[in-house]
Write a structure and sequence with these properties.
The structure holds two protein chains of two kinds.
Chain A: E1 4-10, H1 15-35, E2 44-49, E3 52-57, E4 67-75, H2 76-79, E5 80-81, E6 84-85, H3 87-96, E7 104-108, E8 111-120, H4 125-139, E9 159-166, E10 169-170, E11 174-175, E12 178-179, E13 183-185, E14 194-196, H5 202-210, H6 216-231, E15 238-239, H7 243-250, E16 257-262, H8 272-283, E17 285-289, E18 295-303, H9 312-336, H10 340-343, E19 351-353, E20 357-358, H11 359-379, H12 389-395, H13 403-407, H14 414-422, H15 431-443, H16 458-478, H17 491-505, H18 511-520, H19 526-529, H20 537-556, H21 561-569, H22 575-588, H23 592-613, H24 630-651, H25 655-663, H26 666-675, H27 683-699
Antiparallel strand pairs in A: 1-3, 1-9, 2-3, 4-8, 5-6, 7-8, 9-10, 11-12, 13-14, 15-17, 16-18, 17-18, 19-20
Chain B: H1 10-23, E1 27-29, H2 43-46, E2 55-64, E3 80-89, H3 95-105, E4 115-119, E5 122-124, E6 129-138, E7 141-152, E8 155-156, E9 162-167, H4 168-176, E10 185-188, E11 195-197, H5 198-216, H6 219-245, H7 252-256, H8 260-279, H9 285-313
Parallel strand pairs in B: 1-2
Antiparallel strand pairs in B: 2-3, 3-9, 4-6, 5-6, 6-7, 7-8, 7-9, 10-11
The chains are: A alpha+beta, B alpha+beta.
C-alpha cells in the first residue's frame, strides 16, 4: 500500500486564497480516491505555503481491486437452436471474455437468459491518478485566476513544478505543460534550488523542512512564539492579538521569524486608530501595548526569513514606518486647515453612486431621514440629546474629502469622528454635544459585520441606520438588488447592520416604514428618473429584510430555524418584537401542551387548505345555533375568551404569558378533534366548523405560526 | 546598514538595472516623449503587448501624476516619478528568479533582507487593461510592481507579457538610507566626490508643476486642448475604419503606413490633460465617468486597429488573423487609481 503525494509548486499564491484552495484540493483528491476505489488506509494530510499546495494520503491501494460481476445476455430461446449455441450466444461469450461452455443460465421474471461472470481488472493507481488529477487541479475554484501560457490553462498563479509520487515512484502526470517529477523547491532565499523528495509520506515533510519550508500550523506556532520572545525585550509590554493579521502573515511566509522595531514616541500624539491602521493594514505589523493597554512606540514585523543578523531588516522597516507616519501626520495637519463644516460643499464633487448622485445629495437625504427617525425614537420614550443627530448627519461624510481618508480609506467615519472631537463645530456648542456628534460620526459605519459592535449611542445608532437605509433604498429603487453571490454594494451587510443595531438598541423602528421613508427622500431627485419602473419596491425590500432578520435570528442569535420560521410568519417588520416573540416561543416550546397545540394547528391548517382546494364553503362567522356537538360548543365558547386575554397580553408584549394562555386551549382542541368530524356531508354544518377552525388559526397566529414548529414524530 | 558613500547614486542605479536587462536580451528603449501617467502607457508597453510578436524591452519612464504633486514639500511624494519598466513577452519560466537577480545587481544581498511577493492586481479601466500580480516588498517597502498582463485595450493577450515596474526613487532612497527623496544623491563627481542631489535636479520642477497643475492651468483652455486632441484622434480612427472597410481591399502598404502610432500619441495627450483637469478640480461628478469613458474609447479603438494593422503585415497572403475577442474588463481588487487616467 504505497503512500501518495501531490505537490503543486507555484509562484506566490495570495495569502487570502491559500487556505480555501488547499482545502478544496484536499477534498477533491479525497473524493477522487474514494470514487476510484483507491481510498487511503490512513488520513489525508496537507502542507500549504505561499509557494506550494501539497496533499498526502498514506496507504492507498497500488491498483483498484478487481471487480467480478454477473452480466446478462440474450434469452435462451435466442441463444440456442436445437440445443446448439447460436451466433448470439457466441457473440455474448466473446463480449464477456469467456468460452461458450462457461456461460451460465439465469432465471429472471421475464424468463430464462444467458449470463456470464466477468472479472474486470482494476487499473493501476498511478495510471488513474495521472489521468484524473490534472482535471481536479484545474477545477479548483479561485476568486481570481490567470493564464500564463494558453488561455485555457488557468490557475491562481503560474505553476512552476509538480511532485507526484506513489512512494518513490513518479506518477507520470502533466498539468499546464509541467511534468511531475520528484524535485521540489525549498525556501526562496534560505534554500534555493531543487530539493529531491525521496518518497511520499513523512519523508516529504522532512525534506521540505530541511529546505526551510514549514507547514501552516508550525508557522503559526513559530510566529506566536517569536512575537512573545521579541515583546519580552520591552518590560511589561504585550503584543496586540489580531487573528486576521496572524492568518495573513502565516500565509505570507514559508519560514517566519519576528523582529521588534521602534518608532519615535512623538508619533503617539496621533490618534491610536491612525497609527494602528498604518501598522496593521499597510505594513502588516503587530502593535505593542504597555502594561496599561496604551499603544507603545514599538512594532513587530513578521519576516519570511530566519533572522535579521545585521539589523538591516529592522532598520529598513523602521524607515518605511517613519515615512508612513510622517505622511499620516502631514495629512492630519493639512486636514485641519479646512474644518469638516467647510468641507460639506466639497461633497458635491464626490460620487456616491453613478445614478444616485453625490455624497452631498446623500447627506441631505440622510439628514432628513435621520431627523424623522430620531423623532420616532424620541416619541417612544428614548432619550435623544438635542442637536446631535442632525449635525452629525450633516458632517458624517465630509471626511471623505480629507487627505487622511483618501490615504487610509478604511478609516472613513473614524477620521470624521476624530476631527469632530478636535474642531470647533459651532461657536456656542457645549462639549457634551460635540462629544455626542463626534461619537455618532465615529460609529456610523458600524457594525461592519455580524461580529462587530453596534454604535455606542442612540444618536449614533439613528445615524447609522439612516445612512444605510438611504443606500439600500436608492439601490433597490434602481433595481440593483443583491442576488446569489452578487452583492457589489454590500447591501446585505448594511441591512444586517440595520437589523443588529435596531435589535441591540431595542429601537421602535418598523422596517417597512423606515424604507418607505428612505425611498420618499428621493422624490423629485434626478436619481428618481433612473428608478426601475417595473419593480415593487415595497415587496422587494420586505423580502430582503425578512431574509436579513432570519439570518440575524438564526445565525447571530442562535434561535432554532423552525422557531424563526414560525415567528417571522407572524410578522417581520418589527425587529425588537420578532426577537421577543422568538424568545417566548423558545421558552414555551418544550412543554407538552405547546407541542400538542403545534400538532393541532398543523392539522387545522391542512383541513382548511384541503377545504379551500376542494372549493368547500367556509362560513363568514361561527353560528352558535349550528354547533351540534358539545366538543365544538366548548371550543367555540373558549376561543373568544382566550383570544381576549391573549390579545391584551400581546399588546403588552407579554408574549410568554400569551403563549401559555394559548397552550391552555389544548384540552378543548384535543377534545374537538377527538369528537368532531369537520368535513361532514351537511354543507351548513361543515361551513360552520370550518369557520370555527379559521377563527382559531387567525386569533392565535399573531405571535407565531405554530404550524411551522417541528414536532416529534413528524 | 549601507554606508552612504558606497551605495549607488540614482544614475548608477539606473545604469546597473539597464545593463542587467540589456544583458538578458532586452532592447533598451528611451523614455517616451509624450506625458504619461505610468510606464504602462508608453507605446512600448501598451501597443507591444498586443499581438503575438515576442518582445523584450526595458526603458526608463518619467511618469506624471498631476494630482500627486506636493509642491516639493512632502519627502515621499512626487508629481513626476521615475519608473524602470521591463516587458518580457512571453514571460520566461524563471521570470521571478530573474527579477530577484536584478536586485542582486544593484547591491541588494537578499540573505540580509526580507523579501515578499504580496498580492496586488493591477487594473486601468481607461486603458481597458488589467493583470494579476504582486507588489514586491523589501523590508516592508514596496519596490516593484510585478504584473502578468491578461488584457490590454479590451483585448485578451496571447502570449501574455510580464511587466516589472521598479519605483526608482524609493529604491534609491532605500539604498542610500535617506528619509527624503530630495536627499537622494543623483550623481557624484568622480574627481571631487561632490554630490548632486535629487532636490537640486528636480525640486524646482516639482514646485512649479504643482503650481501649474493645481492653480495656474487655465481650465477652459485645457478643456479645449483636450477636445482638439480627442477630435484629431477620433478622426484618424474613423479614417482607418473607412480604409479597412473599403472594397476591394486596399493595398497592404496603404494600411501599413496609416499613422495609428500618431493617433496613440493624441490619446496620451487626452489622458494627461484629463489628469490636469482632475488635479485642478475642474471635473464634476457627472462629467468624470463620461470623460474617462471617452479616453477609454480612444485607447480601445487604437488597440483594436493596431492589432488589425499588425495582422495585415503578417506574411500570410493578406489573410487577416481574427482579433482576439473583446471582453469587458472584470474589476477586481485593482490598484487604486482615484484621480489618474492610466
Amino acid at each position: 500500500m504505497p503512500d501518495f503525494l501531490l505537490e503543486i509548486g507555484c509562484e506566490e499564491i495570495p495569502a487570502r486564497l491559500i487556505e480555501a484552495g488547499s482545502l478544496e484540493l484536499r477534498e477533491r483528491v479525497g473524493k477522487l480516491l474514494e470514487r476510484e476505489r483507491l481510498a487511503p488506509k490512513g488520513a489525508i494530510a496537507f502542507l500549504d505555503t505561499p509557494r506550494r499546495l501539497a496533499v498526502l494520503a498514506s496507504g492507498i491501494p497500488a491498483a483498484q481491486p478487481d471487480v467480478t460481476e454477473q452480466i446478462t445476455g440474450p434469452s435462451l430461446a435466442v441463444a440456442y437452436k436445437d440445443g446448439q449455441p447460436t451466433a448470439a450466444a457466441h457473440a455474448f461469450a466473446k463480449k464477456a471474455g469467456v468460452e461458450v461452455s462457461q456461460l451460465e443460465k439465469a432465471s429472471t421474471p421475464k424468463g430464462e437468459y444467458l449470463s456470464a461472470k466477468v472479472t474486470k481488472k482494476g487499473r493501476a493507481a498511478s495510471e488513474i491518478l495521472a489521468e484524473l488529477l490534472p482535471k481536479e487541479i484545474q477545477s479548483i475554484y479561485w476568486p481570481k485566476n490567470m493564464y500564463w501560457r494558453k488561455s485555457s490553462e488557468r490557475f491562481v498563479r503560474p505553476v512552476r513544478w509538480l511532485v507526484a509520487l506513489l512512494d518513490a515512484e513518479v506518477i507520470p502526470l502533466e498539468f499546464d505543460g509541467i511534468r511531475a517529477g520528484n524535485n521540489s523547491r525549498g525556501h526562496r532565499i534560505l534554500a534555493d534550488g531543487a530539493v529531491q523528495i525521496p518518497s511520499a509520506g513523512t519523508s516529504y515533510v522532512d525534506a521540505v523542512a530541511a529546505a526551510k519550508v514549514l507547514g501552516r500550523g508550525e508557522r503559526q506556532q513559530q510566529i506566536r512564539k517569536a512575537l512573545d520572545v521579541a515583546t519580552r525585550a520591552i518590560p511589561g509590554a504585550r503584543w496586540r492579538e489580531d487573528k486576521a493579521l496572524l492568518d495573513t502573515v502565516v500565509n505570507l511566509t514559508e519560514f517566519p521569524s519576528v523582529i521588534l522595531g521602534n518608532f519615535d514616541p512623538q508619533f503617539l500624539e496621533l490618534p491610536e486608530e491612525v497609527l494602528v491602521t498604518v501598522m496593521r493594514d499597510h505594513q502588516k505589523y503587530f502593535a505593542v501595548e504597555d502594561a496599561s493597554g496604551k499603544l507603545a512606540p514599538h512594532f513587530l514585523a513578521v519576516l519570511n526569513t530566519d533572522a535579521d543578523r545585521e539589523g538591516t531588516i529592522r532598520h529598513g522597516n523602521e524607515r518605511v514606518l517613519r515615512a508612513r507616519f510622517n505622511d499620516a501626520r502631514f495629512f492630519w495637519q493639512t486636514d485641519q486647515k479646512q474644518s469638516l463644516r467647510d468641507r460639506l460643499d466639497l461633497l458635491k464633487h464626490v460620487t456616491f453612486q453613478k445614478e444616485l448622485g453625490s455624497y452631498y445629495d446623500k447627506t441631505i437625504r440622510t439628514q432628513r431621514l435621520a431627523s424623522w427617525l430620531s423623532e420616532t425614537v424620541k416619541q417612544a420614550g428614548f432619550a435623544i440629546r438635542p442637536g446631535i443627530v442632525h449635525k452629525a448627519a450633516c458632517l458624517a461624510k465630509t471626511d471623505l474629502t480629507t487627505e487622511l481618508v483618501k490615504e487610509f480609506t478604511e478609516l472613513q467615519g473614524i477620521v470624521g469622528g476624530l476631527y469632530a472631537r478636535v474642531q470647533v463645530l459651532d461657536e456656542h456648542m457645549n462639549d457634551d454635544v460635540r462629544q455626542g456628534i463626534s461619537t455618532a460620526i465615529y460609529d456610523h459605519y458600524k457594525p461592519q459585520s455580524m461580529d462587530d459592535s453596534v454604535p455606542r449611542t442612540v444618536e449614533g445608532a439613528v445615524l447609522s441606520i439612516a445612512d444605510k437605509a438611504d443606500s439600500i433604498a436608492g439601490m433597490f429603487a434602481l433595481g440593483l438588488i443583491p442576488s446569489g453571490s452578487k452583492d457589489p454594494f454590500g447591501l446585505r451587510r448594511q441591512a444586517n447592520g440595520i437589523v443588529k443595531t435596531i435589535a441591540e438598541h431595542k429601537l421602535p423602528v418598523q422596517l417597512g416604514a423606515l424604507m418607505q421613508d428612505a425611498r420618499i427622500r428621493y422624490h423629485g431627485s434626478d436619481a428618481e428618473k433612473q428608478f426601475s419602473p417595473n419593480l415593487s419596491f415595497e415587496e422587494a425590500v420586505r423580502a430582503f429584510f425578512r431574509e436579513r432578520l432570519e439570518f440575524y435570528l438564526r445565525d447571530a442569535r442562535g434561535f432554532a430555524y423552525d422557531v424563526v420560521n414560525a415567528v417571522l410568519a407572524a410578522g417581520s417588520d418589527d425587529v425588537v418584537d420578532a426577537v421577543a416573540r422568538a424568545e417566548a416561543v423558545t421558552k414555551v416550546r418544550p412543554s407538552a401542551d405547546f407541542e400538542s397545540i403545534s400538532v393541532a394547528f398543523k392539522r387545522t391548517k391542512n383541513i382548511l387548505r384541503q377545504a379551500i382546494e376542494a372549493g368547500k364553503e367556509i362560513a363568514q362567522a361561527v353560528d352558535s345555533a349550528l354547533l351540534k356537538e358539545s366538543a365544538e360548543r366548548a371550543l367555540a365558547e373558549q376561543v373568544p375568551q382566550t383570544a381576549k386575554r391573549v390579545e391584551s397580553l400581546r399588546v403588552d408584549r407579554n408574549y410568554e404569558a400569551a403563549l401559555l394562555e394559548i397552550a391552555k386551549l389544548r384540552p378543548a382542541i384535543d377534545y374537538f378533534f377527538d369528537k368532531v368530524m369537520v368535513m361532514v356531508e351537511d354543507a351548513r354544518l361543515r361551513a360552520n366548523r370550518l369557520a370555527l377552525l379559521q377563527t382559531l388559526l387567525k386569533e392565535f397566529s399573531t405571535i407565531a405560526d405554530f404550524s411551522e414548529i417541528v414536532t416529534e414524530g413528524k | 546598514m549601507v554606508s552612504q558613500s558606497k551605495s549607488l547614486t540614482f544614475q548608477e542605479l539606473i545604469l546597473k538595472l539597464q545593463t542587467f536587462w540589456a544583458q538578458r536580451g532586452c532592447v533598451l528603449q528611451q523614455p517616451y516623449d509624450v506625458e504619461v501617467g505610468a510606464g504602462t502607457m508608453a507605446p512600448e508597453t501598451f501597443l507591444r503587448v498586443l499581438g503575438n510578436q515576442p518582445y523584450k524591452v526595458a526603458y526608463l519612464q518619467p511618469s506624471r501624476r498631476p494630482a500627486d504633486g506636493r509642491y516639493g514639500e512632502n519627502p515621499n511624494r512626487l508629481f513626476k516619478h521615475t519608473q524602470l519598466q521591463v516587458i518580457l513577452k512571453p514571460p520566461p519560466e524563471n521570470v521571478q528568479e530573474l527579477y530577484l537577480e536584478s536586485l542582486g545587481a544593484i547591491g541588494i544581498d537578499l540573505r540580509q533582507h526580507d523579501i515578499k511577493f504580496e498580492e496586488d492586481n493591477w487594473e486601468s479601466p481607461t486603458l481597458g487593461a488589467w493583470g494579476i500580480g504582486w507588489q514586491v516588498m523589501l523590508d516592508g517597502l514596496e519596490i516593484t510592481q510585478f504584473t502578468y498582463f491578461q488584457q490590454c485595450g479590451g483585448v485578451d493577450l496571447l502570449p501574455i507579457s510580464a511587466e516589472l515596474t521598479y519605483g526608482l526613487e524609493r529604491i534609491a532612497a532605500f539604498l542610500q538610507d535617506v528619509d527624503s527623496i530630495y536627499d537622494i544623491v543623483w550623481a557624484r563627481d568622480p574627481e571631487t566626490g561632490h554630490p548632486t542631489t535629487y532636490g537640486e535636479v528636480r525640486l524646482a520642477e516639482e514646485l512649479q508643476f504643482s503650481v501649474y497643475n493645481f492653480e495656474a492651468a487655465d481650465v477652459p483652455k485645457t478643456w479645449r486642448h483636450f477636445e482638439v486632441y480627442e477630435a484629431e484622434c477620433r478622426a484618424l480612427l474613423d479614417r482607418y475604419a473607412e480604409l479597412t472597410k473599403a472594397k476591394p481591399q486596399v493595398p497592404a502598404a496603404e494600411k501599413e503606413r496609416f499613422p495609428l502610432l500618431a493617433a496613440y500619441d493624441l490619446c496620451l495627450k487626452c489622458s494627461h490633460l484629463f489628469n490636469i483637469l482632475d488635479a485642478r478640480g475642474a471635473i464634476s461628478v457627472t462629467e468624470r465617468v463620461g470623460v474617462i469613458a471617452r479616453v477609454r474609447a480612444l485607447a480601445v479603438g487604437i488597440a483594436k486597429a493596431y492589432l488589425q494593422q499588425q495582422a495585415g503585415q503578417s506574411e500570410s497572403a493578406g489573410e487577416e488573423e481574427p482579433a482576439a475577442p473583446v471582453k469587458t474588463v472584470k474589476t477586481g481588487r485593482g490598484k487604486k487609481e482615484p484621480a489618474q487616467v492610466g
